[in-house]
Each structure stands twice: as C-alpha cells, then as structure tokens.
C-alpha cells in the first residue's frame, strides 16, 4: 500500500515530545529544541509590515537577491571568505532535503556522526542512501564529543559520497575545533567527497573562542556546503527560514529541485530577515551562557557530563546501573520531559536535555534530575 521507503522511516523521538506535552499538566519540558524567548519586536514588526505591504507573492526560487547578498556579506565579515552563492531554503531541514536530492543516488554512503540529529538518517532513507556512522562518544583518549580522524578515513569506501558534520551539535553540545574541521576537509578532498556542514546553532557558544565555520575552509574544500538558518538564534523556528551556501554550480542544481518542491522560502519572512540579520542578540546569548552554567553546576557530581560548548543541549550519561527505560519512567513520574539518547544514537547510554527553557522551570527540572541520580 505504501512506498517501500516508508519502512526505513522512523518517527522522530523529538516530535513525540510535542504530542506528549499536550497530554500533561504543567510539564517540566526539557525536551524541545527551540529558544524560550520570542522574536525581537523589530523583527516581528518587519514581518507584519511586509505582509501589510503586500509582500505575499512568490519570490525568486533562490530568494530575495538583497537578502542573499546581505547573508554573503555577513559570512565574509565573520569568517573571512565570501562563498560563491547562497540561497534561501525552507529551514535547514529543507536545505538538507534539497542537498540529498541533488547529490545522492540510491546506494551511496554518507558518513554521519553518532550521536546525530534525528533527521539525518531518515532523510537519507528517502533517497535510498545509507548512513555509515563515525563515533563521537568521549573516551579516555578523547574526553570530549569529537571525531577520530583515523576512523573517518577508515570508513571511506568506493560507495562513500559525502561526510556530514554538525557543529555546534544537536544533541551533544560539542563544537568541532579548527584542527578537526581541517582534518575532515583533508579527508574529503583526498577521497573526492562532498562535505556538508550543519551550522544552525552557530551563535550559541560557551567558550571564549571564535566559531570555526566551514565557510572559511571553502577555498581549500571546494565540495563543501554550509547550512544555516534563523530559527534558533532569533526565536523563529515556526518561520521555516534557512539558507544554503556553496558553489554557484551546485546551488544552480539545488534551485532546480527547489522549483518543484518548496518553490521558495516564505516571502514576507524573507523581507523581515533583512532586518533580522542586523538585530543584536547579545543579551539572549548571555542568558544562554548562564543557563549552560546552571546545567553544568547543578549536575556536577551526579551525572557524567561533558560541558556543552555550544547549541542549547547537554547530553549526560544515565546514572550508573539505570537503564534508559527506567530513567525515562523516573523522569515521567516527576513530570519531566527529556529525549532518550537512543533517539539520536545506536546506543542507549545518554539523554538529551534542552536548556532552552525558562530559568525557574530549568532549575526545578535539574533539581529533580539530581534527585533521580541520588536514588
């Protein structure tokens, strides 16, 4: 009755939390990946003005030229390189779908980090591609959430078409170093692979060092694609507005796919994004640094946790001797929602905690998690 590919598609553990929230009274929701603040007033006003001014028709497939130019200017300013082209997508998820439809054939392999964002392996299934996982889990030799370059190299085969990286990471909060990105670029170039970098959380950083973007490495890694978007930084996940940067030749092909899928990103919201890119979000970023510190301080000594370097997630290990099922039940008994780690990984040893929650709710939830750990 249904297409065979549907047998490979799994329901999102994250979206299940949306459904569960609706059935609970006053849940302590530490599961959802969207900022707890609203869009800035100037951004909302710009969207309303665009709608009232009649900017409600299709734009060009690639989006508003002035918006694409502004985005490229920002990349040049931040990362010292101006990609050949950029265009607007319907969220990073839309950009990811356009990428795999444009570049992958059935049977192609993509090297995917484990843990991974839930969409990655399922969007590959839509085109018949296969994820081959490389390990990010901490070890004695590598105490943070990071790749082992020799493992990535060993996984490359004649079927490998692409390496996917996600920094800052959902779900781990890990951030790739410049050396790690350089090493992955070298592997991609050596084997003639595409390198796809999902950088949607690029403005949530908790260490005093600049963000290492693939944009700055495009001159030496010419098959690279960078995905970004407005959803997380500016508190507008429902706008579904993202962007793709890469070579003009590649983006021309992706735009052909966009013509027959999303057509264009939402027109009035593109106009508002011109204002959005000039909006100062430093106060919100400072608030999230405080949230990250609260998580690390509260859970210290109770959970095995690598402090998040970016995004707004922590990925602690379950208390010793406690199974995933038992831990999830313990959280539900206390009206807490988290996402089990098996939703993001081949193993069930950790859980994702989103600290994108109001401070009182976050503090209450952390105190109850400590209570669970104490037994």
Structural write-up:
- This protein has 375 residues and is an alpha/beta fold.
- It folds into two domains: 4-39 and 281-374, Aspartate Aminotransferase, domain 1; 41-277, 3-Layer(aba) Sandwich (Aspartate Aminotransferase, domain 2).
- The chain contains twelve helices and twelve strands.
- It has helices spanning 13-21, 41-52, 65-79, 91-103, 119-126, 149-155, 178-191, 248-259, 267-276, 282-299, 324-333, 359-374; strands at 28-29, 85-89, 109-114, 130-135, 160-166, 194-198, 224-229, 242-246, 313-314, 336-337, 339-340, 351-354.
- A seven-stranded mixed sheet has the order 2-8-7-6-5-3-4, with helices on both faces. The protein has a three-stranded antiparallel sheet with strand order 9-12-11. Strands 1-10 form a two-stranded parallel sheet.
- Helix 4 (91-103) packs across helix 8 (248-259).
- The chain starts with 12 loop residues before the first helix and ends with a helix.
Features:
2 domains; seven-stranded mixed β-sheet; alpha/beta; Aspartate Aminotransferase, domain 2; 38% helix; 12 helices; globular; Aspartate Aminotransferase, domain 1; single chain
Please tally the helical runs, counting DSSP H or I stretches of 4 or more residues.
Answer: 12
Number of strands: 12
How is the main sheet built? 7 strands, mixed
Name the helix and strand elements from N-terminus to C-terminus, one letter apiece.
HEHHEHEHEHEHEEEHHHEHEEEH
Overall spatial form = globular
pLDDT average, as an integer? 95
Strand portion, in percent?
5-15%
């Amino acid at each position: 009755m249904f297409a065979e590919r549907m047998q490979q598609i799994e329901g999102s553990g994250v979206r299940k939390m949306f459904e569960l929230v609706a059935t609970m009274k006053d849940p302590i929701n530490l599961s959802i990946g969207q900022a707890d603040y609203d869009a800035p007033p100037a951004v909302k006003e710009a969207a309303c003005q665009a709608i009232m001014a009649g900017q409600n028709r299709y734009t060009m497939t690639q989006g508003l030229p002035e918006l694409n130019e502004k985005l490229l200017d920002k990349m040049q300013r931040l990362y010292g390189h101006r990609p050949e082209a950029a265009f607007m997508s319907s969220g990073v998820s839309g950009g990811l779908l356009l990428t795999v439809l444009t570049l992958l054939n059935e049977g192609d392999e993509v090297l995917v980090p484990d843990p991974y964002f839930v969409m990655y392996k399922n969007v590959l299934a839509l085109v018949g591609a296969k994820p081959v996982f490389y390990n990010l889990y901490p070890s004695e030799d590598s105490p943070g959430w990071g790749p082992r370059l020799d493992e990535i190299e060993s996984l490359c085969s004649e079927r490998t078409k692409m390496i996917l990286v996600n920094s800052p990471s959902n779900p781990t909060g890990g951030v790739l170093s410049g050396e790690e990105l350089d090493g992955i670029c070298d592997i991609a170039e050596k084997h003639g692979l595409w390198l796809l970098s999902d950088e949607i959380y690029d403005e949530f950083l908790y260490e005093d060092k600049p963000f290492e973007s693939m944009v700055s490495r495009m001159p030496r890694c010419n098959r690279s694609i960078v995905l970004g978007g407005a959803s997380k930084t500016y508190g507008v996940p429902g706008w579904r507005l993202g962007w793709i940067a890469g070579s003009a030749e590649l983006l021309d092909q992706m735009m052909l796919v966009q013509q027959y899928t999303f057509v264009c990103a939402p027109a009035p919201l593109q106009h508002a994004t011109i204002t959005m890119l000039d909006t100062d979000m430093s106060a919100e970023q400072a608030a999230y640094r405080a949230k990250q510190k609260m998580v690390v301080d509260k859970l210290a000594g109770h959970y095995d946790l690598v402090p998040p370097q970016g995004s707004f997630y922590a990925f602690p290990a379950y208390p010793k001797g406690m199974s995933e099922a038992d831990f999830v039940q313990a959280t539900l008994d206390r009206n807490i929602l988290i996402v089990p780690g098996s939703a993001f990984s081949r193993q069930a040893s950790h859980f994702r905690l989103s600290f994108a929650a109001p401070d009182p709710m976050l503090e209450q939830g952390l105190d109850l998690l400590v209570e669970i750990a104490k037994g």
